[in-house]
Amino acid sequence: MSPDGGGRKKGLGRHRAPKARRAGLLAGILLAASTLFAGCGVSPTASALQSRLLSVSDLPTGWSPASTSSSSVVLGSTPCLSGLSTEHSGWTNAVAGFVEGTAIPAIGEVLATGPKAQQRWQALGRAFAGCRAATLDLAGKKVTSTVRALPFPHVAHVTSAYAWQFTVSGLKIGFDLVLFRVGKDVGYLSYADLGAPLTPTVRTYVRAAIAKAQGKPVRIPDTISVASAPVLIAHTRMGPVAYRSVGSGTPLILIMGYAGTMDIWDRQFVDALAQSHRVVVFDNAGIGRTKALAPPLTIDAMANQTGALLTTLGIRRADVLGWSMGGMIAQALAVLHPAQVRRLVLCATYAGTGGIARPTREAIDALTSSDPQQALADLFPPGQASAQNTYTTAASGYPPAPAAPRSTVSAQARAVDAWWAGTDPAGRRTASITAPTLVADGTEDRLDPVVNSISLAKRIPGAQLVLYPEAGHAFLFQDQSTFVARVEAFLR
């Protein structure tokens, strides 16, 4: 996420809609799959059950009802499930489904009652316990899902849990299926997401489903995911700054790069870090509802505004992670406000000492292309279509928001040029950084030749360097699970 030299906005943000529409269709299929083992309850009893299922008012902002019709899903040849009865007499069920935004995650819920309901659920649990794989026909496409027992954290009334994983449309999908019993009634909740769903998140929804089935009032907080967390305004000494906050624990500030809004962060990446940190993402100067700074805009000025945000939020000392231009801002913050930075993670970024290896003209021009694939090629190397699709699908979960203004992007480009040239005051003082530092990049980074990360790590005293093979500028999303683990280990 480096400057395009002409002030035009980065191409990626303009092209979420096709991926979002595809993800919306995928969510419908996943919901249908998650309720495949339910019957069709339309009796008065089923209507009464419906009021004890989760509703939109119980869920975070951004969730909406979704169809749970299983007409597009057929269970294929799966011996471990072949013994399940298709007889629905003696039990009645109600079904609900929801999707966040236009993409996934998606939730499917079933609640059943009647003299044979518990018998049915016991049979279902026994069948899943013996399953290792299942074949699904999803809208005419056959996919094989692996099935394994899930060691679900203790939640009262949960009887068993299973993790399903498969790949469809180039996306790795996982949905956790958790069976529970409430009095004489039984049910299950499925939570589908990209990759493996976060267990603490699934646990929160399962607890809410059980409480609602018991007739108790529930409300899942908006801050369970950064995608639903509200945009707040911090009134700092350098003007208002728009931000989102999610999670709890040691504060971790994520600083976005060139032309990006806080909605460019991969939702799963942020939510994973929020399992053990209070993560704050925000819009840089002149973007969204964050006040523009007096010209000329500099990296140092953006670092000062970041420091002002921390002060206003009452965060005395934070871990800081910056990506690309955000990594430059993070370095300047550590130089100008060292007492505010506990540990520093610099992703795909540059030293500000001059003499860096600049990206090629071809790579810079790709950012302004009307072809979204050219823009994505700056972030992901060839052969990483799955990583591209996963990232854009995850990003499409945020509510619609305007892109960075062209005037701001032009100002950022000039600020980055000054940093590259070594004329930014803080950039020349990188060697004075005292915070423990982790420098990371992908070996195939088109926008930031990897030699820059190597030299940056050598310049900062005691800095650690980690490089991800066959990964590009967006390595932190492409190799998300391994990088999050590395970050967590470093921040301990």
Mean pLDDT: 87
Biggest sheet, open or closed, and with what strands and sense? 9 strands, antiparallel
Structural class: alpha/beta
- Assigned CATH class of the largest domain: Alpha Beta
Number of E-type strands: 17
Q: Describe it for me?
A:
- With 492 residues, the protein is α/β, with parallel strands linked by helices.
- It has two domains: 20-220, PknH-like extracellular domain (Protein Transport Mog1p, Chain A, 3-Layer(aba) Sandwich), CATH 3.40.1000.70; 225-491, Rossmann fold.
- The chain contains 14 helices and 17 strands.
- The chain has helices at residues 17-34, 44-50, 117-129, 199-213, 267-273, 299-312, 325-336, 361-366, 372-377, 385-395, 406-421, 450-459, 475-478, 480-491; strands spanning 63-65, 73-75, 92-100, 106-113, 133-138, 141-149, 158-168, 171-182, 185-194, 232-236, 239-246, 250-255, 277-282, 318-323, 341-347, 437-442, 464-468.
- The strands form two sheets. The chain has a nine-stranded antiparallel β-sheet, sandwiched between helices.
- Helix 12 links the parallel strand 16 and strand 17 (464-468).
- The longest helix is centred in the N-terminal third of the chain and has 18 residues, at 17-34.
- The chain starts with 16 loop residues before the first helix and ends with a helix.
